[in-house]
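Reading a protein record of the kind used here takes only a little practice. Each token is a code from a learned vocabulary of local backbone shapes. With that in mind, consider the following protein and its fold in token form:
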Amino acid sequence: MKIKKLTNQNFETSSFYLSCFLIASGLPLINTKRENNKVVWIFENSPDREKLIENFYNGSAQVSAIRLIEIIKRYKALIKTY
């Protein structure tokens, strides 16, 4: 299971595509870290976060396809540097 937890005022997940979607949706990415051979994405928590995640998993999320593709490419490159 992907890591999904709140730490203080931050939200963490190891789901790459969820992270890319959250970034494309405007949720601020604070940092990344390596844990158990996975990249953990750390986001600033926001009131919209739960609804964004719910929409992502139920298939009703809407973001710009071009923006999402750009973000996926950028962060895949970041992961390769770890």
Q: What stands out?
A: Residues 21 and 68 are 7 Å apart (CA to CA). The chain has one domain: 4-80.
